[in-house]
Fold this sequence. Notes:
single chain, 2 domains, 16 helices, EC 5.1.1.17
Amino acid sequence: xxxxxxxxxxxxxxxxxxxxxxxxxxxxxxxxxxxxxxxxxxxxxxxxxxxxxxxxxxxxxxxxxxxxxxxxxxxxxxxxxxxxxxxxxxxxxxxxxxxxxxxxxxxxxxxxxxxxxxxxxxxxxxxxxxxxxxxxxxxxxxxxxxxxxxxxxxxxxxxxxxxxxxxxxxxxxxxxxxxxxxxxxxxxxxxxxxxxxxxxxxxxxxxxxxxxxxxxxxxxxxxxxxxxxxxxxxxxxxxxxxxxxxxxxxxxxxxxxxxxxxxxxxxxxxxxxxxxxxxxxxxxxxxxxxxxxxxxxxxxxxxxxxxxxxxxxxxxxxxxxxxxxxxxxxxxxxxxxxxxxxxxxxxxxxxxxxxxxxxxxxxxxxxxxxxxxxxxxxxxxxxxxxxxxxxxxxxxxxxxxxxxxxxxxxxxxxxxxxxxxxxxxxxxxxxxxxxxxxxxxxxxxxxxxxxxxxx
Length: 455
């Protein structure tokens, strides 16, 4: 692997009177050829514009992961007793600095955002079961929360007597203010009849449809309205938007590291703000570290492969091979995904589902209404058809306006289907042209989702 940055040796230049002038040191960043080498393991012939679902791990990080795996397998006892905990702590320290946490004890490494949600919601469920929360007190969440979060609420909260308030966000959406207004209504419903909102779950970036949520502002509103604690589910955040946990101000904040941070699957961090009222959180898998604090509990949940947690230092080295490091990658991905989304919308005579400033490294692009995406099954069938017949991997979202809502329109009718495109460093213009031309061909051939249902 190339070092994170290389410097040209300074050369002395001699002028006419033999005085020496040194040249400035010049950084050497990763080039396009090296980027292609890092992702040469991707299946050829596929326009892979769905980084948001599973991310993508570079070849040098895959090699580093294999090295860690072999170190364990060569001498497991030595690795367990003398290296594992120290290396995990090193990874946690890197994360602490990246997200601006106060202390490494506030950072736990877990498998993914699903595990983090279980940790937080398990604690809420205990509070209801033990009588610390009153039956009917509420958890407030957004309607587009991850399905795993909804299932964790079902498993831990509602069965223990808690109620759930679902905030329906508008889409397409034009401004943060529209989201704030709906969120305030949800909190008001949670406080109705003298009840309390015990937890608010806020996405930093919703998955489908993809929208950057004004998390800091919503957390501030929660504080003003007396919400007991706030959990920001930021599965897509780190590497896609700027993350500063102190600025956001939530009690809990989780982000996957395998989506936009180049780690192998699966690894995430869970930030838990330290305060006198901090709850006693525990990992849902109980092992011999139980009772030693969540970060230590999470660092050993039995014999398993911890290599995805151990490569975080190498991942940061990879990221720093790019000009501007993580923030440079993030900005370039955002700018490029907006550019590609606007190109597609122009070709299809549709619009983006959000303003550019509400796009992370993903964007929602309206599909021609002639495709007739009318339900989730239609969206899945169209996605599969694009993969199988055009070599395009892109998620499709169905958004049929509810009663009283006005949806986006193209020249032929109401836009009910949206492509969620991603941009990561390995993507090229050709990926988006392939999607553009595939959709255009389907429309020209008169293909609709109704026809695809019959296939």
